[in-house]
Amino acid sequence: TASEYLNPLISQNGEQTISVKINKYDDKNLSPEYLKGIKLSLYYSENGDDGNLVLVKDFTLKPVKENQPMIFETWSFNADVDYQIPNPLDYASDLTKEDLNKLTNDVLDKYKEIFSIINSGDAERYNELYKSSFTRETLSMYLDSTETKNYINNLKNRVISSKNHMKSFGEFKININPNKKIIELTSKEGKPLLQSVDEKGKIKFFVL
């Protein structure tokens, strides 16, 4: 069972779309039995309390009769939020129209820049780069001033504690989001490429 907050992905009231892509793993296709066992549900909470959830909608994968190498489905739901945040994706270009080799190199250069910042423990530089993203997170999660300060400090501490512990990039995969406007690099296992491993073996993942 896994959960994910959607608020930071919602810019304003109204109809939202949510897409799910499931790829085969370890060269094993997705069987009808496996796909039938996947359940996705959307819940609402007044104060973020996991013990006080209200079901908004269940999402069901379309049944298949044969093994599939990949499944992709999109659903819609209505969001009622008390904020309106500019969405940078409104002005983003279609990445599928870009030269993939050049795009990969440009993105890899950005990953290397962030890698260097984290590996040097430069929390202030990291905070400056992600300032707009952090603002979006804190506003959409309705954090007050104290909670916002704690949130930012926790992020800074993750960077500081990862100094000289960043794991070198190995082989990676390039993934373009179904919306064609977001790109990321992941390890062969699908994990975030930016990760630190401390002396005790504790792993921290970072995303762009």
Descriptive overview:
With 208 residues, the chain is an alpha+beta fold. It contains 5 helices and 8 strands, in the order E-H-E-E-E-H-H-H-H-E-E-E-E. It has a two-stranded antiparallel ribbon. Strands 2-3 form a two-stranded antiparallel sheet. Strands 5-6 form a two-stranded antiparallel ribbon. A hairpin with a 6-residue loop joins strand 5 (172-176) and strand 6 (183-187). Helix 3 packs across helix 5 (145-161). The longest helix is centred in the middle third of the chain and has 20 residues, at 100-119. The protein is globular and about 50 Å long. The chain starts with 13 loop residues before the first strand and ends with a strand. The mean pLDDT is 91.
Please tell me the overall pLDDT: 91
The helicity comes to 25-40%
Strand percentage, roughly? 15-25%
How can the largest sheet be summarized? 2 strands, antiparallel
Order of strands across the main sheet: 1-4
Outline, from the CA principal axes? globular
Please give the alpha-carbon distance between the first and last residues.
Answer: 24 Å
Low-confidence runs: none
> Tally of extended strands?
8
Task: Quickly list its features.
208 residues, alpha+beta, two-stranded antiparallel sheet, 28% helix, globular
How would you sum up this structure in a few lines?
The protein is an alpha+beta fold and 208 residues long. Helix content is 28%, strand content 24%.
